[in-house]
Design goal:
2 copies of one chain form a homodimer. By secondary structure, chain A is α/β, with parallel strands linked by helices. Chain A has helices at 24-34, 36-39, 47-61, 77-88, 104-111, 134-142, 163-176, 233-246, 252-255, 268-288, and strands at residues 71-74, 94-99, 115-120, 145-151, 179-183, 209-213, 227-231. Chain A has 10 helices and 7 strands. In chain A, strands 1-7-6-5-4-2-3 form a 7-stranded mixed β-sheet, sandwiched between helices. In chain A, α6 runs parallel beside α7 (163-176).
């Protein structure tokens, strides 16, 4: 291939990125004016903000969330991932990780002194399914994988898991007593006509499942470093104890910006998604113009 | 003793706390207006802000700091402590910890699966020295303590280590090849006439020493969650690699507030310290009025 090679394995956004969602700075300033009470929240985050988020996230994910017990605000989804892994995995444990998936997942497992069991995502075959090799996942659980960590939509491919895949993942984890950590960071950024199944909405018992999200991507609020984890009260409690020694809490003033999340002006989200979709389509046209390069149409994500 | 018992072992600040240092919110807003470049800084923090901080911290601590290699901005000093410990300690290691000291130190050691070796601070005996039992410290190093973690000013007692103590700590650690992590969070909050020796200023070689500070206390900027670690380039590099999976970075917009640190208006710091000193004196009078209660006059801290 002619031209300058570009490494897309890790991308950060530069100064010409999308604007943060409207009202974010105003919400921050209101937080500052609230004073010390906003600076020193509970480690799991300000109670009244958790109340609002619990309602939003229940509505979004199709299953209730207890603001008191099932939700923690973290300094970014990276922190939520770290805390979730560090609360469920210890040295010598085995963790099933999708290949490919978010680049830091493997590093988190390594930091804990745990062992990664790769599970292949055959993303180029098919678009109805994300393409997870469910036999490999079952085999990972048979080899005693204690935790399954995956992103949905898959980061980096933009593949979205089907209802059938989500159901089988949940069933397998339940059968083997494994914990599921599902990183749904891009789950609001679904391209036109794309459906989405929240794993937690399919469960009767969420004791071993935690869902991670945040407003850094679709909403471009990454400068505030905000994320959430919700689901299992047991795991959330462990995460809070760990947050107390890792970072204390998400920055108190920044937490106030969470009041704008899921409360954007009418039409704003659709417009933002359209803009991402235009970029996707432009890039797809470029890649599809290169002979010998196979590309799956991303169904979601940036 | 009559009256209602109060547990002072852990304190947070409430809504009637001191105001944040002047200019902090304005600096934050300027950061937001800088856009994506301020949101997505290097993991160790924005380069131009590190340039400024390196000069401030060199001036303050009496020894040069390389902005490129010897400084990392973290989401709070708690994060700096976590990253410093997690970058220098692994399961089975021994860590020397002062008793009493910051309550989370022990928990950090436990999280790493390491073993704590306590070193007594006899803070009630004497005010010229903090009262560290240097024989116990030597004995800890003889038992293979790989790291010595301590706060100066000591948190919670407000005792300040003397030049002689700092010199002996540095000498012992050097003799045994141990790493020193010194938490100087309260080192700007020195009461009237109090001198202070920065451990790093006494060293020819800082390869095994990292100093931690932040603007959460004296400057009341805790709502922004900001801290720094500086010193050993090797440890700072490990801390940055770990930060990439723990929290990515201190919130980008919040980092902009660091531009106000060590640049407060003339007289502001002295006035803030006087206000803390008045509280100290009021509390000392109360405690000294209770028969059988021994109290050391805090030389620094909140």
């Amino acid at each position: 291939m002619p031209g300058t090679p570009v490494d897309f394995s890790h991308g950060d956004v530069n100064a010409t990125a999308f604007e943060p969602a409207p009202g974010s700075l105003e919400a921050f300033v209101q937080g500052v004016h609230r004073g010390g009470g906003q600076a020193y929240t509970e480690y799991r985050g300000d109670a009244s903000i958790r109340e609002k988020l619990a309602l939003n996230l229940a509505d979004f994910s199709g299953k209730s969330v207890s603001a008191a017990e099932e939700l923690i605000i973290t300094p970014g989804t990276q922190s939520a991932l770290f805390l979730a892994i560090a609360s469920t995995v210890t040295a010598g444990d085995k963790v099933a990780i999708v290949q490919p998936d978010y680049f830091a997942n493997r590093k988190l497992v390594e930091f804990m002194g745990a062992e990664m069991i790769p599970v292949k995502l055959d993303y180029l075959n098919g678009s109805a399914n994300a393409g997870l090799d469910l036999n490999e996942l079952e085999s990972a659980f048979k080899k005693d994988a204690k935790v399954f960590l995956f992103s949905n939509p898959n980061n980096p491919t933009g593949a979205v898991y089907s209802r059938s895949e989500i159901g089988q993942i949940a069933q397998l984890a339940d059968r083997f007593g494994a914990t599921i950590i599902v990183d749904q960071l891009y789950s609001r950024l679904l391209y036109e006509g794309q459906s989405y199944v929240h794993l937690r909405s399919t469960l009767a018992d969420e004791a071993n499942v935690v869902t991670i999200m945040g407003p850094s991507k679709t909403e471009s609020l990454s400068g505030y470093r905000l994320g959430v984890a919700f689901g299992s009260a047991r795991i959330v409690q462990r995460m809070e104890k760990l947050q107390a020694i890792v970072s204390l809490r998400a920055p108190g003033y920044c937490q106030a910006v969470m009041r704008t999340w899921f409360s954007e002006p009418a039409g704003w989200l659709a417009d933002r998604i359209n803009k991402h979709q235009a970029i996707r389509d432009e890039l797809l046209a470029v890649f599809r113009g290169i002979e010998g390069v196979a590309v799956r149409t991303p169904q979601a994500g940036s």
